[in-house]
Amino acid sequence: MIQRLLSSIAVAGLLASPALAEPVTLGEAVSRAVVYDPAIAQAEAGLDQSRAGVDAARAQRGLQAGVQAEVGALETDFTSDTISQIPRSVGLQAEWTVYASGALDAGVEASRHLQRAAELQLIGARERTVLDTFEAYAQTWLSERVVEVGEATVETFRIRLDETNARFNQGQVTRTDVALTEARLASAEAEQEAAMARLAATRARLSRLTGVAEATPQAPAALDAVLPVSADMALQRVLDDNPDLAAARSAGLSAEQRLREARASFGPKVSLRARATHGEDMYFFFEDPISDIGAFVKVEIPLFTSGMKSASTRQALAGQRAADAGVRLAELQLEEAVNGLWGDIEARRLALNAARRAETAAELAAEGAQREYEAGIRTLVDALDAENAFRESQIARYSAEVQLQIAQARLLSLSSDLEGSIPA
């Protein structure tokens, strides 16, 4: 009987894996996912935008130069005559802002902090992709094991139904016993169909994340990392290294600089300007080529802005308050997540230990029932029931292992340690 069940498991493995399935390791799946996931491409584009923003802010402090050209028509009416002319000119002009009350420097600093936030957001995007891939990989592996064990369970009930029918024909059991066995077989077959559906869903998710059609895990998911020894240490590590929190803090620093920029934008401004032009225009009532070269110092002091200064300052203050609130919200959410995951990990460790003990006991019971059946002490039905109990304990242990791994991966992801914990 045991050999027949083992053969059915091998057959189930063939049935569960599509002909074109591509086995991948966890490291391969993660490597492909970080290249394939559009969310990472979006984060990279955001980083490029922020870098361009820094360059644009720096350029505001530099020399601005350009070419100017002008052509038009002019009618001049004098007492004794009317003159028509086409004035035209071309020239070069350069301007450099020497002093802007700190607005330009604040703009550069604000852009730098936004660039840092974008860099951290990219790290966070990679960690989320790695976590999603790890979960999909682990769940797919678990679904495959459930299908394999489920096929063995169905085969066990088929053997039991044959045995029950034989005993019914001998008058040892009633029709009710046969109906109950048929019902249990039908229930096992229904559970097996549901397990196949879950396997298809988890494989589809893994394929979507990695871009590998019909991806299937080559080995169980595993992590190469050591967790902190206490919840307090885990929380401190997350608060220090979480990329989303760090990005929120950088956004807060940027908001502070935007407030400084808004206030300075309406302060005194000093700039240097130089120009050189050549053209034809009226000069003492006659068209004449005119050229000029000049240098100027321009001082601007806004006196009345129709409320623009106040509105800009209030807008920047509101942005700073929102950024500060975002930092505090991120800290609270991370504290909740770490405490919840730490408790979950401890509970799942206990559950895994219990599942392992239950599996060991169920395996011993199944082996004992098989020997007692062969010795004529127990019936085949007793042996099959013990075999089914062993299979159920296997599923419980597989599930406990996977759920513990996923909880640990989620905790590592919060401190940006997950990607580095994936075996190559």
In short:
This protein has 424 residues and is of the alpha+beta class.
Could you characterize what this model shows?
By secondary structure, this protein is an alpha+beta fold. The protein contains nine helices and eight strands. It has a four-stranded antiparallel beta sheet with strand order 2-5-7-8, with no helix packed on it. The model is unreliable at 1-17 (pLDDT under 50).
What is the overall shape?
elongated
Q: For the largest sheet, list the strands in their spatial order.
A: 2-5-7-8
Our estimate of the beta-strand percent is 15-25%
Mean pLDDT: 88
The separation of the N and C termini measures 40 Å
Write the layout of secondary structure elements.
Blueprint: H1 2-16, E1 22-24, H2 26-36, H3 38-59, E2 64-71, E3 74-77, E4 82-85, E5 88-99, H4 103-169, H5 175-210, E6 215-217, H6 231-241, H7 243-264, E7 269-283, E8 286-300, H8 308-374, H9 380-414
Parallel strand pairs: 1-6
Antiparallel strand pairs: 2-5, 3-4, 5-7, 7-8
